[in-house]
Amino acid sequence: MINRRVFVGDLVRLAALAAVVPSDWRVRWRPRFADDPFILGVASGDPTANGVTLWTRLAPKPLEPLGGMNGERAAVRWELARDDRFTQVVRHGTATATPELAYSVHVDVAGLDPDRWYFYRFMTGHATTETGRTRTAPAVGATTPLRLTFASCQHYEQGLYTAYQHMAREDADLTLHLGDYIYESAPVENRVRRHFSPLCMRLEDYRLRYAQYKTDEHLRAAHLARPWIVTWDDHEVSDNYANLIDSDTTLTVDVMKARRAAAYQAWWEHQAVRVGATSDWANLSIARTLNWGALAQFWVLDTRQYRSDQACGDRIKQVPCGDWADPSRTLMGDKQEKWLLDGMTTSHARWQVLANQVMMAPFDTMPGPGVRVSMDQWSGYPVARDRLLGEIAKRTPRRTVVLTGDIHSNWVNQLRSSFSTPDAPAVGVEFVGTSISSGGDGSVSWMTDAQHGENPHVKWQNAQRGYVSCVVNAAEWRANYRIVPFVTRPNAPIVTASSWRVRNGSANIDPA
Question: Using an 8 Å Cβ cutoff, are 180 and 460 in contact?
Fold first, then answer.
């Protein structure tokens, strides 16, 4: 139980600590560091046809408050070049790293050529980062093929990031991360890796957790390899939270709002996202769209910040129950839903791609009469789900792909215009990717024959660790499920467990 008075007292003490930061706000052009200030690596993200966002953070002692920085502002130089030896620098500049934003640096580079690979680096004092590799999206109207990887759920204490080691070697253009980049809580004991405090509540708690995760060499290598598009799910704040309602019902709305503001700010400070900083971190808007020429339009969703509270609790429940079927309940919020549907209506991209957090297709866990589904997934919001799928049937049928994370297992799902109407037509496909490490080693599958009979729209399921690698062109989308047999010890090999294909203009899913 979190005592509100204690929590607010902690915030006051943090403010007092901030007051003793040196008042000399001049920028240090040649700062000195006790250790390498770029231990957390570099990243790029949210590519457009003529630009990309670059990121780094100064943290010579990343597991200390403010990364071991002394409170002074520091100048950070950056370069972007056509070659990895930086003999053809095309853009360069200087940014200021400040304590207010944890010494993170975000650079939005513009004026680049479309459909081209670039190399980038940061420098400060006598330190220089590793060289990152990034690229721009194809030009407007181009249907250039895309190689895409996507992942989610990387609980630091529950397994090693071996899957990222393999992902970094993939010949891919882009990576999507669908949430649970960090976990706000850690087990009291674990045998894989050490952890910090068992619960994040304050800004510094979340900052330390991100720093801990980014010390992993395989995660840094995956960021080095290509640009990422990132969204969040629940564990960036709190398990199964809904808007300003925490699953720990002892937290007041005021406490939860302060916690959410801290969590959202720390998320922004550690991601290469084309999202502006704000003075209202508790309401940071991250829903956005990115184009891969005319081949694919990505809709990056937020299904946490605006959702109604879960019906009947946030676990798997038999339905109907409580206000489960209330048509006023929402997962995305009215404004975001309108933005998505209006945009899909006017989009002419060959593929409409929803970067989505929780599984859209329902999964009935109860064999025979009766239905039992997850209240935290789209199945806990059946009217909102069927409304969205019904609109997809009208606006972008047979060219919509939903990419999902969250549940630490692989799924291939046929999406129908309604899951409340028998024999509703297929309108799209959902590829659900497993976790990088959450849940430990996992298992081949836990779905029973009886459960499969209850869920004919589920074409395949697997519960091992890994990621999904996709090859996309104007005619078809192929999804290759890449899995590692274990994550509780190093050097796991990787194999393709299953491959699937959907043709543009058809919602049918076939084994590839």
Answer: no
User: 0.85 cut: is pTM over it?
Assistant: yes
Alpha helix stretches (DSSP H) within 325-399: 334-346, 382-395
State the Cα angle at 354 between 381 and 397, rounded to 5°.
85
- Residue 186, pLDDT score: 62
Q: At what angle do helices 217-225 and 203-214 cross, to 10 degrees?
A: 80
Q: Spell out, as residue ranges, where the chain has pLDDT lower than 50.
A: 1-24, 188
Tokens of 501: 């294909």
pLDDT at 195: 60
pLDDT at 197: 57
- What confidence score (pLDDT) does residue 191 get? 53
Helix (H) or strand (E) holding 478: strand 476-484
Neighbours of 13 (CB within 10 A): 11
d(CA 293, CA 320): 44
Residue 492 to residues 40, 163, 190, 225, 489: CA-CA distances in angstroms? 24, 8, 20, 20, 8
Q: What is the pLDDT of residue 208?
A: 95
Q: Cβ distance 61 to 34 under 8 Å? A: yes
Nearest to 264 by CA among 251, 248, 275: 275
* CA gap 152, 494 in Å, rounded: 17
The backbone torsions φ and ψ at residue 81, rounded to the nearest 5 degrees and listed phi first, read -135, 165
| Cα–Cα dist 502/412, whole Å | 11
Element holding 373 (H helix, E strand) = strand 371-374
**Strand ranges for 58-206 from DSSP E:** 73-81, 89-97, 104-109, 117-124, 127-128, 132-135, 146-151, 174-177
Torsion angle defined by CA atoms of residues 182, 186, 192 and 196, in that order, rounded to the nearest 10 degrees: 90
164 closest CA partner among 225, 252, 114: 225
Collapsing DSSP to helix, strand or coil, 132 comes out as strand
Q: How far is CA 78 from the centre of its chain?
A: 26
